[in-house]
Amino acid sequence: SRRGNRRLDSMVADVLRALPGFLALCVGAILAHGLSLVVGSNELLLAIGLGALVTNAVGVPQRLEPGVATHSLWLAAGIVLLGASLTIESVLETGSTVLVLMLGTVFVSLLTVEAIARNVAGLTGKFSSLLAAGAGICGVSAVVAVGGAVRARETQIAYAAGVVLLVDAITIVVYPTVGSLLELPANVFGVWAGVSMLSTGPVVAVGFAHSEVAGQWATMTKLARNALIGIVALGYAGYYTRQDSDASVSLRLLWANFPKFVLGFLAFAVIASAGVFSPTQQVSLENAVDWLFLLAFVGLGTEIRLDELRRTGITPALVVIGTVSIVSVLSLAVALAVL
Question: What is the torsional sign of CA 187, 91, 175, 315?
């Protein structure tokens, strides 16, 4: 009983210590959301920017550090709830031809980023994998999922997420322009955007900006691609567990290092496929994901320090931009040929 009381007192004390920093994250998230409505920029990018601005301009006060450090919890929670936006039906509805194109694009993207980042740019293995996951699967969500799976440094996750959002900002302008100049059919444009752009939000935005049909194809294709996030995270977790342990990987070791939130993500996907969530609940879950990611990225932004970024340079961004350019051209050519 006494031990239980001490444990409860300790938990209450931890919550009270974290509360000021958590409230600071909330303020940052609200500011980022409000600014995005005013200036039209991506709210996650603004959230990272606000966090980075604070940490580099004045630093995070010591009494806020415990609460700001909880951003990893909000990342995990957001990834779990993200699974509710996926269904098995969304994968099947895309058709075999589109699925083959999507899988090929993902494979080429992952392989190209890994090869260029490691062998040409000289980036570290885990950082290269974060960039590859972001470019190959679903942008920021893949970066944070794989980052947790391989236990990457928070600065690496934040930088990789920033690179993804930078590329998103470029593609959301370039893709509609190219689609208009080439007068691409709705299904071709939608599939092209779904298989080669990075994050779900920009894909849906440019798809429906083209036409209703293009938006539907873009959304279905992108959601099918997003479904690979669990498989890729698990694959990377196994690879780096084997590499870091310098020994054969036992099931016990794999489980100890496996990010449990990936299971939550997959569980929500299965539940969503069973039709358990009503449309209203789906909207509520999507809103929750948006706010959880906002909280998380304000905190992640505080991990970005300009001195370290100067040492890293612009090379990671160039690697991803180059890869997306190559994959974009190839996937458009294939889509025009087979659709």
Answer: negative
